[in-house]
Structures are given as structure tokens and as C-alpha cells.
């Protein structure tokens, strides 16, 4: 099983040093969350907490995940980066294709594109994107971005996006993996149909096991059961060496963790304490076998 460190809600001046330390102690990847802005009044509940509340406020630090991946990639050589997950629905697919291709090239193919639809109506409306039919629109966006990243002169004529022949150069020298987030039936079908993996939000091991089973069934339905597939999980109730082994047994391939939170520290803990947490976690789990 791989180990990924999430840098959610970390002060921006810590990110470069955390990436260096994570690579030095043996982490496989950095997970980069996405938040466009904090709206004072939200029209919808946050879907991944029991009461719908957001776990951050207007002063919580966020960094653009694509810019962060490029910056951290410049000071590392083996560490991978992936968005977990970028809210696709409020953005433009051609602009994103340019950005994703740039990050993939600048990191020497150490970037994975984790995508979701987005949960907040304000992010769509205030960014000029329709909230209605957002799922179908995101499906087409994924198709557009993959097409452009594949290289060469391409064109697209869909329901939501339409353009004549164009080319973005250089294309990444390897395909950028797409990881699909979301817990709904539609999201799981999207992951099984077009994804190179699936990314969870916070879930129990029992919920993960049930979802992974559904994904296996759906991937077989789409004729993709034999293709490589990552399961990136944030588990809230399995800890310790035995707990991590249980996660591997149910099919988790990538365990997303925040070592300083596991150590009882806050998101805004000092850098040196977070680095100590990374080292302690790596010694206990990554190098345990």
C-alpha cells in the first residue's frame, strides 16, 4: 500500500519544506485539496460531514493545487502529487488542459489529476458556469481534457463544449492519470468508466469496503476489471499497523493521512513539529515491513 500525505489547510509557507521532508522520509505522494473561496453564506450543506458544516472558515489557508504541485515538484525528484480532488464543474476544460499539461511536464510525469464535480452552487454561479446538469458537463470536460492532453491536432463538438482543430504543445510524455472523487452512484460509475482510480473523502473502513466492492462490480460491467486502478482512501476508524493492513486487505492501494493530526496537533502546527510527525509516521508504518 502507498502512503500519501495531505497538506489540507496548511500555511502556504510550510508547503515546500513539507514536500522535501515527505520525500526524504519515504512518502509516495502529496494530496492537494481544492477550495476556490469561502462564501459567507452557503446555499448547500457540505456533503462530507455529519451535520453539513464546513471544517474551515474564511481565514483558513488554501493554495491553488496546480500551482502548489509545480512549486513542490521543483524541489523534489521522486515524490508524486495529485489533486484530491479539484472541483471541475466551475472551471473551463481548455484552460485546465493547459495547466494540467504544464504541471505534468514540469514534474516529469509526477502528477495525477483527481477530479470531482464540486458541491457549492456559488462556485459555479460566481465563476460563470451553470450548476444545472453539472454531472453531464463534467463528463464532457473529462473527455475534452483527456483529448487535448493526448497531443496532436484535435477538435471537439459536444453538447457543452465546441471547438475546431487545435493543439497544445508539448503534450505530456506519459498519460496523466485521472482519479475520480465522489461517493454517489453517478460518481462511482464515472470512476469505473473513465478513471484510473477513485478518491474517497472521509469514510469508515466498512463504508470503504462496500464502496470498493461496488467499484469492482461496475468496472467489470464496463469491461475494465483487468486494468490498473487506484483506491485512494481517507479512513477515519482504522489506525496502527494492523488497521492499515486491514485497509490493504479490503482493496485500499493508497492511504491518505495527515500525520500531525494523528499526533494530536492542529493544521496550523509549527513546521518543525509537522516534520517530526512525518518522520515518526514513516518510521512506524512506511518502513515497518
CATH C-level name? Alpha Beta
| CATH homologous superfamily classification | Luciferase-like domain
Rg over CA atoms = 19 Å
Query: What kind of sheet is the major sheet?
Result: 8 strands, parallel, barrel
Which consecutive residue ranges, at least 5 long each, have pLDDT under 50? none
State the shape.
globular
Number of strands: 11
Percent strand: 15-25%
Report the CATH topology name: TIM Barrel
N-end to C-end Cα span: 11 Å
Arithmetic mean of pLDDT: 96
| CATH architecture verdict | Alpha-Beta Barrel
**Helix residue percentage:** 25-40%
- The main sheet orders its strands as 1-2-3-5-8-9-10-11
Q: In terms of structural class, how would the helical and strand content be classed? A: alpha/beta
Q: What order do the helices and strands follow?
A: EHEHEEHEHHEEEHEHEHEHH
Number of helices: 10
| Total count of domains | 1
Amino acid at each position: 500500500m502507498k502512503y500519501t500525505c495531505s497538506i489540507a489547510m496548511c500555511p502556504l509557507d510550510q508547503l515546500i519544506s513539507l514536500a522535501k521532508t515527505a520525500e526524504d522520509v519515504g512518502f509516495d505522494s502529496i494530496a492537494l485539496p481544492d477550495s476556490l473561496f469561502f462564501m459567507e453564506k452557503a446555499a448547500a450543506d457540505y456533503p462530507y460531514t455529519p451535520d453539513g458544516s464546513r471544517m474551515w472558515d474564511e481565514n483558513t489557508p488554501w493554495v491553488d493545487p496546480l500551482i502548489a504541485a509545480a512549486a513542490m515538484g521543483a524541489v523534489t525528484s521522486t515524490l508524486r502529487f495529485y489533486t484530491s480532488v479539484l472541483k471541475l464543474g466551475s472551471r473551463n476544460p481548455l484552460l485546465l488542459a493547459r495547466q494540467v499539461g504544464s504541471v505534468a511536464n514540469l514534474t516529469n510525469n509526477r502528477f495525477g489529476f483527481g477530479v470531482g464535480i464540486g458541491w457549492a452552487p456559488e462556485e459555479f454561479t460566481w465563476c460563470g458556469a451553470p450548476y444545472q446538469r453539472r454531472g453531464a458537463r463534467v463528463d464532457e470536460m473529462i473527455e475534452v481534457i483527456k483529448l487535448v492532453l493526448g497531443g496532436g491536432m484535435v477538435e471537439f463538438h459536444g453538447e457543452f463544449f465546441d471547438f475546431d482543430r487545435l493543439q497544445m504543445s508539448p503534450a505530456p510524455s506519459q498519460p496523466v492519470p485521472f482519479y475520480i472523487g465522489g461517493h454517489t452512484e453517478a460518481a462511482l460509475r464515472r470512476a469505473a468508466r473513465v478513471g484510473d482510480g477513485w478518491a474517497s473523502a472521509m469514510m469508515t473502513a466498512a463504508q470503504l469496503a462496500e464502496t470498493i466492492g461496488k467499484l469492482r462490480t461496475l468496472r467489470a460491467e464496463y469491461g475494465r476489471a483487468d486494468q490498473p486502478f487506484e483506491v485512494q482512501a481517507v479512513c477515519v476508524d482504522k489506525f496502527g499497523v494492523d488497521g492499515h493492513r486491514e485497509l490493504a486487505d479490503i482493496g485500499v492501494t493508497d492511504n491518505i493521512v495527515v500525520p500531525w493530526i494523528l499526533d494530536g496537533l492542529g493544521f496550523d502546527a509549527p513546521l518543525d513539529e509537522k516534520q517530526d510527525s512525518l518522520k515518526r509516521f514513516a518510521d512506524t508504518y512506511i518502513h515497518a515491513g
